[in-house]
Automatic annotation (TrEMBL):
It comes from the Bacteria. Residues 90-146 form the Winged helix-turn helix domain. InterPro entries: Homeodomain-like_sf, Winged_HTH_dom. Pfam families: HTH_29 (PF13551), HTH_33 (PF13592). Coiled coil: none annotated. This is Transposase.
Length: 154
């Protein structure tokens, strides 16, 4: 969740605190603020225990990255060098390979999902390799499509 979304969410919690002070029912608060009743109940518990201050945002969720900035730069360089440079026989990076590379380089263990999040955070996106025969002749295919296909198609 980005900063703007956290600020909007904080405003909603502050509105909920005002409604708690007026003893409004959970169902009404949820409907008016367009949040779940479960969230309202949790906020009410926290408000009852610590007032409006207990509803303050605790910052962004999630874990901190296991790799520091320099390690992420080193990883980007290693990924750009390609899988062959690291002992694999083809040019495909898989999540499992990247996880193995991270463990080799930095001694840090990542799950496949964690690798996916890390790569996304670093600006990488999933790519599917085109499955084409090495012997494929683009010129012959184009010629066939122009000359032969109309006759076959009818």
């Amino acid at each position: 969740m980005n900063r703007a979304a956290r600020v909007r969410r904080q405003v909603v919690r502050e509105q909920a605190a005002e409604m708690f002070a007026r003893a409004r029912p959970t169902v009404e608060i949820a409907a008016e603020l367009r949040v779940s009743e479960k969230s309202v109940r949790e906020w009410r518990r926290r408000w009852t225990a610590g007032g409006a201050a207990a509803l303050a945002s605790t910052g962004p969720g999630g874990m901190d990255c296991k790799l520091d900035g320099e390690q992420r730069r080193q990883l980007a360089g290693a990924l750009d060098a390609g899988p062959v440079a690291h002992g694999w026989t083809d040019q495909r990076w898989t999540l499992a390979r990247v996880a193995e590379l991270i463990e080799r380089l930095f001694g840090v263990v990542y799950t496949l999902r964690g690798v996916s999040y890390l790569l996304h955070r670093m600006g990488y996106s999933p790519q599917m390799p085109a499955r084409r025969a090495v012997e494929r002749d683009e010129t012959a295919i184009t010629t066939w499509r122009r000359r032969r296909w109309p006759a076959v198609k009818g």
